[in-house]
Structure to design on (258 residues):
């Protein structure tokens, strides 16, 4: 089984049916992160169409300012999600202090829920890696997926020491820094992602389909000096280890065990 631990399937538009067909044909277990309530509702619909789609609820840092003053409205969606994501901070592309404050407020709301409900949280940390680590420590978060980490290696190593997991995506094929990160993260903490469809469109100027994850696996195998099949197996084992014993993710565990 292939693992795409960070995607946004609801954004595929006219290509959605083709994407779902490719997921089914190639058995790509896909965690489809949400950025707000409407995207979560669409992801819930996609999960009805395929058991390989895992919908998760979050508020992306770019949309956080629209939610900071109505956090109570998000509680029903938080209660229903098996994992929390995508949430976090983005201080690289969002520099206005008031918007950064809103990001922190929203992230802390989600981290408080993650701690109380013992849910895995998937994190956006761009340009705010040290700040996110401090908040994770403050809320006692022990199970986290750090999405597309691109920060400094010292903070990375501290996150590794905390036991967090890290998704590596298509940029590993083109960035020396991302390859260094991939080589630093232990094989038992790596997950594969595509960030489809928006991530590849931003990175290389074109929308890619779910099998993009195979190219990520091939490059990770090269970086780690192992066979692609070894990466595939390790990633599946890592995801299983992350959610082992978690009642919220029973459906996901069942699919992994098939």
């Amino acid at each position: 089984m292939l693992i795409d631990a960070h995607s946004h399937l609801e954004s595929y538009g006219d290509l959605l049916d083709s994407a779902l067909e490719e997921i089914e044909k190639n058995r790509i277990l896909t965690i489809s992160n949400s950025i707000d309530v409407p995207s979560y509702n669409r992801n819930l619909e996609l999960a009805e169409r395929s058991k390989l789609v895992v919908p998760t609820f979050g508020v992306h840092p770019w949309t956080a300012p629209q939610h900071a003053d109505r956090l109570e409205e998000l509680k029903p969606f938080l209660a229903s999600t098996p994992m929390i994501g995508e949430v976090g901070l983005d201080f690289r592309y969002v520099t206005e202090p008031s918007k950064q404050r809103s990001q922190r407020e929203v992230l802390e709301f989600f981290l408080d829920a993650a701690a109380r409900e013992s849910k895995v949280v998937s994190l956006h940390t761009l340009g705010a890696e040290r700040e996110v680590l401090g908040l994770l420590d403050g809320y006692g978060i022990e199970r986290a997926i750090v999405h597309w980490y691109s920060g400094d290696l010292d903070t990375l190593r501290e996150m590794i020491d905390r036991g967090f997991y890290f998704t590596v995506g298509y940029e590993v094929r083109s960035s020396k820094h991302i390859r260094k990160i991939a080589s630093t993260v232990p094989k038992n903490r790596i997950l594969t992602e595509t960030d489809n469809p928006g991530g590849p469109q931003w990175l290389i100027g074109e929308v890619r389909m779910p099998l993009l994850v195979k190219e990520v696996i091939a490059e990770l195998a090269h970086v780690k000096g192992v066979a692609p099949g070894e990466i595939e197996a390790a990633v599946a084992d890592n995801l299983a280890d992350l959610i082992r014993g978690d009642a919220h993710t029973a459906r996901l565990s069942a699919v992994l065990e098939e």
Remarks:
- Strands lie at 2-7, 28-33, 53-56, 84-88, 121-124, 144-147, 165-168, 190-192.
- The first strand starts at residue 2 and ends at 7.
- The CA atoms of residues 199 and 245 lie 31 Å apart.
